[in-house]
Prior knowledge:
- It is elongated, with a radius of gyration of 17 Å.
- The chain has two domains: 7-66; 78-155, Glutaredoxin (3-Layer(aba) Sandwich), CATH 3.40.30.
- The chain has a four-stranded mixed beta sheet, with helices on one face.
- The model has no long low-confidence stretch (mean pLDDT 92).
- The protein is α+β, with helices and mostly antiparallel strands and 157 residues long.
- It has helices at 7-19, 27-38, 46-52, 57-66, 86-90, 93-104, 146-155; strands at 78-83, 117-122, 133-136, 139-143.
Amino acid sequence: MSHSLSAEQKAELEAWRTYYPYPIMGLLEALRCVQGWFRCVPPEVEPHLAELFSTSVAHVHEVATFFPFLTRKPAGRHRVGICRGLSCAMAGSKDISRCLEKSLGAREGETSPDGRFSWEEMECLGACDHAPALLVDERLKGKATEEAVAKLAENLK
């Protein structure tokens, strides 16, 4: 898969460089854009971002690998997360993890063969009152049930 940036994409990244008072402040939003375009942050884009934001490739790499919503290998078109924090673990997040693997056709941290889904266990999502908390495409869906997870693959096209 080619990870070269189009002129439009470069312009969008440039807009993030100038959006904040200090250019480096836009790096995280630029990385989110790259993640959206390629479903990952490919290493070959890091030098362009480093030059654009006047920082080192090492710094771009550090930011790109620090945040769990940014991935190094292509994620599925739909990303699902299940909280594994204490409250969620006590409420059955391990059972939901097994259900996710079965329903989505992929193991944790991997992408389904059709490229539609990837899922992962995540640290606290801050939704203990909805334990075990489920996150779908960066949106909190509340309490995960086996029934809801089983329908996920059908509902997300």
